[in-house]
Hints:
CATH superfamily of the largest domain: Tetracycline Repressor, domain 2
Helix content: over 70%
Distance between the termini: 70 Å
Oligomer: single chain
CATH class of the largest domain: Mainly Alpha
Largest sheet: none
Strand content: under 5%
GO molecular function, one term: transcription cis-regulatory region binding
CATH topology of the largest domain: Tetracycline Repressor, domain 2
Pfam family, one: TetR_N
Number of strands: 0
Organism: Actinomadura darangshiensis
Protein name: TetR/AcrR family transcriptional regulator
Radius of gyration: 20 Å
Keywords: DNA-binding, Transcription, Transcription regulation
Amino acid sequence: MPSATSGRRRRADAERSIARIVSAARESLTKDPGASIDDIAKAAGVGRMTLYGHFRNRAELVEAALAEALRAGEAVLSDVDLGGDAQAALTRLLESSWSLVAESTALLTAAQGTLSAGRIRELHTDPAKRVEELVRRGQDEGTFRTDMPITWLVNVVQYVLHGAAEENRTGRLTADETGRVVTTTIQSILAR
């Protein structure tokens, strides 16, 4: 008869296995959005049966990897000082955000191939909310434009970040210039 201790040990082993698989998925999909289940299982050091014991299909695994990347990004972004005027706060946020987006561009590509657009938007709720609050504050302060829907402006910010990440990935923008280009572009788009 299994003891409570052995049950906790199995649960802890399963949690470590899941964490290892998600980490391997995140790393593999960042390198290659088309990475297969076999590639990910091999990178995690587990068999396909173990992987499928935790994730029913590739879509679940991709979602878990994207969610983990977004959680890690949230941990970084939650430390960004968003006090003071909205324009300066947005600059600080953008300088911190673009590199996170750059790291996860390929992961987002993998997600777009397996998850619905609605689910991807849902997973991005917290980052989008942070930008929306800053844009709204800038509008209230009179520094950001008010002639366009706020949801559109937030989406434009995300499009610019993803575009800059792609430019950086392909070498058309260097890491040193990307932050400045992103900030200048978005600030000019939002300017009243």
